[in-house]
């Protein structure tokens, strides 16, 4: 082994190599799953956008490339054979599309959705907010078997959105409208929100919890902004001396690893974790299940998140001698 490997002399990756699910199954300890557990696959790789906090440019590159349609169909059929077992109402397999951003070009996107429809599967996917404003695209997503879309809303605070260069196109009001329209069409919207100690206050976190509850956001994800190694943000924060911890095991977007100027770091992280946990209160889970499509999926995922978040919060409080009433 060499200390480092430099790939600068290798040709640029322009194609997607198909996954060999037969080989993966032989090497895997994973048993067959029903339609309540997902099977990973991807249609595209890369993303042309350059969000400073995103790891995609470093891992899969900016060049946007597509799977060969015939290769994709073969992979899905093989994955069904080796990893799926129908059970009860879950007669369709659920695939998790691991594309960094499936929605870049509408024409190509619609072609891919038509292809997925032929495969007779359910699937979830990461997606750009702007495509969800198009009702025809939403209709095609639902028609092709999409049960949930993960959207990086980032924040409901306008000044924070502007700091992320998204304020000119997005707003909390627009998010709420898109969530409701997609819900009516039969599509769950999973919202991903960033919390930044340099931009967000405790009151902002309270507002975010209220927004999630009011709009019955499916399986909400809160993350503390994290400068992952290799990203543009990492080098910017490193140069400014804003990184306070380089223990990579803590780089999971739950731990605060950057400087907190306005709040005690432990207090900020505790507020973040308690706010996150509140979005999975029994009342919010009940309303989420009642209002959203795919009710069993809403219930199962909410219970799993609630359990995990409770364990993390209790461990954090124990490690930091925090007593709560």
Task: Determine the number of helices (DSSP H or I, runs of at least 4 residues).
Answer: 12
Task: Tell me roughly what share of residues is in helical segments.
Answer: 40-55%
CATH topology: pyruvate-formate lyase- activating enzyme
H and E order:
HEEHEHEHEHEHHEHEHHHH
Question: Biggest sheet, strands in spatial order?
Answer: 1-4-5-6-7-8
Q: What is the CA-atom radius of gyration, in angstroms?
A: 21 Å
- Residue-averaged pLDDT: 91
**Biggest sheet layout:** 6 strands, parallel
Number of DSSP E strands: 8
Give a structural overview.
The protein is of the alpha/beta class and 325 residues long. It has one domain: pyruvate-formate lyase- activating enzyme (Alpha-Beta Horseshoe), CATH 3.80.30.20. The chain is 43% helix and 13% strand. It is built from twelve helices and eight strands. Helix 5 links the parallel strand 5 and strand 6. Helix 8 packs parallel to helix 10 and helix 10 runs antiparallel to helix 12. The longest helix has 25 residues. The model has no long low-confidence stretch (mean pLDDT 91).
Provide tags for this entry.
325 residues; 6-stranded parallel beta sheet; alpha/beta; two-stranded antiparallel sheet; pyruvate-formate lyase- activating enzyme
Topology:
Elements: H1 21-27, E1 38-41, E2 44-45, H2 56-59, E3 65-66, H3 69-83, E4 94-97, H4 106-119, E5 122-127, H5 135-143, E6 146-154, H6 158-163, H7 172-185, E7 188-195, H8 202-214, E8 218-224, H9 232-240, H10 265-278, H11 282-291, H12 295-319
Parallel strand pairs: 1-4, 4-5, 5-6, 6-7, 7-8
Antiparallel strand pairs: 2-3
């Amino acid at each position: 082994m060499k200390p480092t490997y430099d790939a600068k002399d290798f040709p640029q990756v322009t194609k997607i190599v198909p996954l060999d699910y037969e080989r993966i199954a032989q090497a895997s300890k994973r048993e067959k799953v029903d339609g309540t557990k997902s099977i990973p696959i991807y249609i595209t790789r890369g993303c042309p956008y350059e969000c400073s906090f995103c790891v995609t440019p470093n891992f899969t590159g900016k060049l946007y490339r597509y799977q060969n349609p015939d290769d994709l169909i073969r992979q899905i059929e093989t994955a069904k054979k080796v990893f799926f077992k129908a059970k009860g109402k879950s007669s369709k397999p659920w695939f998790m599309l691991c594309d960094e951003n499936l929605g870049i070009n509408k024409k190509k996107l619609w072609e891919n959705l038509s292809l997925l429809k032929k495969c007779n599967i359910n699937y979830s996917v990461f997606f750009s907010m702007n495509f969800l404003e198009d009702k025809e695209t939403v209709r095609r997503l639902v028609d092709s078997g999409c049960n949930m879309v993960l959207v990086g809303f980032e924040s409901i605070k306008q000044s924070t959105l502007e700091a992320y260069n998204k304020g000119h196109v997005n707003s909390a009001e627009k998010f709420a409208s898109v969530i409701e329209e997609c819900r009516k069409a039969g599509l769950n919207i999973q919202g991903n929100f960033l919390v930044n100690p340099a931009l967000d206050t405790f009151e902002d976190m309270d507002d975010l919890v209220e927004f999630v509850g009011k709009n019955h956001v499916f399986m909400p994800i809160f993350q503390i902004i994290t400068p992952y190694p290799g990203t543009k943000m990492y080098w910017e924060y490193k140069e400014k001396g804003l990184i306070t911890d380089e223990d990579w095991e803590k780089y999971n977007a739950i731990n605060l690893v950057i400087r907190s100027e306005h709040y005690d770091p432990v207090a900020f992280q505790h507020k973040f974790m308690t706010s996150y946990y509140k979005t999975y209160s029994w009342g919010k889970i009940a309303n989420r299940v009642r209002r959203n499509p795919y009710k069993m999926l809403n219930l199962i995922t909410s219970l799993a998140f609630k359990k995990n978040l409770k364990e993390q919060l209790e461990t954090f409080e124990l490690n930091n001698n925090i007593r709560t009433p």
